[in-house]
Design brief:
Elements lengths: L8 E8 L5 E8 L4 E5 L27 H15 L7 H12 L9 H19 L3 H6 L5 E2 L1 E8 L12 E6 L5 H23 L19 H14 L8 E6 L6 E2 L4 E4 L2 E3 L1 H14 L2 E5 L7 H12 L4 E4 L7 H10 L4 E4 L1 H4 L2 H13 L3 E5 L9 H8 L4 E3 L6 H17 L4 E2 L7
Parallel strand pairs: 4-16, 5-15, 7-11, 11-12, 12-13, 13-14, 14-15
Antiparallel strand pairs: 1-2, 2-3, 5-6, 6-7, 8-9, 9-10
Helix pairs in contact: 1-3, 2-3, 5-6, 7-8, 12-13
Family: Belongs to the enolase family.
Catalytic activity: (2R)-2-phosphoglycerate = phosphoenolpyruvate + H2O
Pathway: Carbohydrate degradation; glycolysis; pyruvate from D-glyceraldehyde 3-phosphate: step 4/5
Length: about 425
């Protein structure tokens, strides 16, 4: 083993996330490099996600991460000291064995994830490689389509809009950079539309940088997106298509086995009919978590129905970046796409295994942020490394969102002329 790459120090630090809550940063040092990574946190979470380690008690409403810092420095650090940062699989395997639980409840997903990602950064730095090349190879072919969540609802906002995200996907540009600027123009046009209709007080933004107008009906949100696209001078279906993240587990009443939103109860059948109507009325090409997280058969029914309308059904809470849940979805033909969130599973190795399986099973890959995030841009490089079809990292506002977009702009600039933009082909 080359001693230059052996782990010499592992340090944790309690930092702030974008909601003003504490989270964890971990740094891993070798003789020649240092890598750091932060832990994001979701507001709406799948029940099968890996679990965070929090302090409990009165301090910071129990959300403190001092226990996580202690775990990093006193339990994990001795276990991986001296290991080669280039041996990601061995280090992650050590973490998994040290934890020994299915949902990372001993060490915590936040401690394991930050160590795992920091190791990768330290290795890339030691080799003098950009992170995306270290993780994915020297010749990436594609830039992903950005899915910009510009109207926030559900757990991400304080309005009455119960669907969680309303998204524009710029598909008609020649490259990622131009596509992002299309999204930015639509975002600003939307602000003007909202201010003109509801007043300046509704120009404030939600957790992911999108606007949170005082509306309840998803059709009202979609109409606002349509108006913003047209006001910005772009054409729906040619330049831009729409997407929705329902986060339907948040709407599901498990005792009654019904969904509750807009003041009424919905069965799975009536909800499938509702989504079909939306797809007929609007250029929606992707819908995420349209049903609750264990309804693999309902997802499959909806995917079969919407496939005729060229809509991709995507699982997030359905899968939680978990290989065994993905296999269940594959057997049921539940979806055509998957959300990839490294903190849902806990290590980089497990994340890559999930992506590899999803690709083999012809699932579209959507690398995603979390609603509580930091200025860590790791997922931008990850999206290039795994050649994802899409990246979802919020509106083009707030530093924890723009840092990912800015990193992608850097990569697109570095690779211009040698890399293509997936554009409308991402939906094929």
């Amino acid at each position: 083993m080359n001693e230059e790459f052996s782990i010499q120090e592992v340090r944790g630090l309690e930092i702030l996330d974008s909601r003003g809550n504490p989270t964890l940063r971990t740094c891993v040092e070798t003789a020649i490099s240092k890598g750091c990574a932060d832990a994001p946190a979701g507001a709406s979470k799948g029940t099968s996600e890996a679990l965070e380690l929090r302090d409990g008690g009165k301090r910071l409403s129990g959300k403190g991460t001092r226990k996580a810092v202690f775990t990093v420095e006193n339990i994990i650090a001795p276990a991986i000291a001296g290991l080669d940062v280039r041996d990601q699989q061995k280090i992650d395997s050590t973490l998994i064995k040290l934890d020994g639980t299915e949902q990372k409840s001993r060490l915590g997903s936040n401690t394991m994830l930050t160590v795992s990602l920091a190791v990768a950064r330290a290795a890339a730095g030691g080799l003098g490689l950009p992170l995306y090349r270290y993780l994915g190879g020297i010749s990436p072919s594609y830039m992903p389509v950005p899915l910009l969540n510009i109207i926030n609802g559900g757990a991400h906002a304080g309005n009455k809009l119960e669907f969680q995200e309303f998204i524009v996907a710029p598909i008609g540009a020649d490259n990622f950079t131009d596509a992002l600027w299309v999204g930015v123009e639509i975002y600003h046009a939307l602000k003007e539309v909202i201010v003109g209709r509801f007043g300046k007080q509704y120009a404030a933004v939600g957790d992911e940088g999108g606007f949170a107008p005082p509306i309840e009906d998803p059709r009202e949100a979609l109409n606002l997106l349509v108006k913003a696209v047209e006001s910005a001078g772009y054409a729906l279906e040619t330049d831009v298509v729409l997407a929705v993240d329902v986060a339907a587990s948040q709407l599901y009443d498990s005792e009654k086995a019904v969904y509750v939103f807009m003041g009424r109860e919905w069965s799975t059948e009536s909800l499938v009919e509702y989504y079909t109507g939306l797809a007929d009325e609007y250029p929606i090409r992707l819908i995420e978590d349209p049903l609750w997280e264990s309804d693999f058969k309902g997802f499959a029914e909806l995917q079969r129905t919407l496939a005729r309308r060229r809509v991709i059904v995507v699982g997030d809470d359905l899968y939680t970046t978990n290989v065994s849940r993905l296999m269940q979805g594959v057997l049921n033909e539940s979806t055509r796409g998957v959300i990839v969130k490294p903190n849902q599973v806990g290590t980089l190795t497990e994340t890559m295994e999930f992506v590899e399986l999803a690709k083999r099973k012809e699932q579209k890959i959507v690398v995603s942020h979390r609603s509580g995030d930091t200025e860590d841009s790791f997922i931008a490089d990850l999206s290039i490394a795994v050649q994802s079809d899409f990246i979802k990292t919020g509106a083009p506002a707030r530093g924890e969102r723009t840092c990912k977009y800015n990193r992608l702009l850097e990569i697109d600039g570095e690779l211009r002329g040698t890399i293509r933009f997936r554009g409308r082909h991402a939906f094929d």
